[in-house]
Design goal:
There is one protein chain. With 56 residues, the protein is mostly beta strands. It has a single domain, classed as Alpha-Beta Plaits, CATH 3.30.70.20. It is 0% helix and 21% strand. It has no helices and 4 strands. Ferredoxins are iron-sulfur proteins that transfer electrons in a wide variety of metabolic reactions. InterPro entries: 4Fe4S_Fe-S-bd, 4Fe4S_Fe_S_CS, 7Fe_ferredoxin, PSI_iron-sulfur_center. It holds the Pfam family Fer4_9. Keywords: 4Fe-4S, Electron transport, Iron, Iron-sulfur, Metal-binding, Repeat, Transport.
Length: 56
């Protein structure tokens, strides 16, 4: 089960450097998590200032 970023994302980029497998990238309007790459470690979730990241 991968983590997902909701539409609440403010594109601050805080989550991207936290991902140990580089599964997070900047999308068109919000950051996105590649479900195939995500290892479900949760490192990104606590750094999100708007709580936009959660388990799928």
């Amino acid at each position: 089960m991968a983590y997902v970023i909701s539409d609440d994302c403010i594109s601050c980029g805080a989550c991207e450097p936290e991902c140990p497998v580089e599964a997070i990238s900047e999308g068109d309007s919000i950051y996105v998590i590649d479900a195939d790459t995500c290892i479900d470690c949760g490192a990104c979730e606590p750094v999100c200032p708007v709580d936009a990241i959660s388990p799928e």
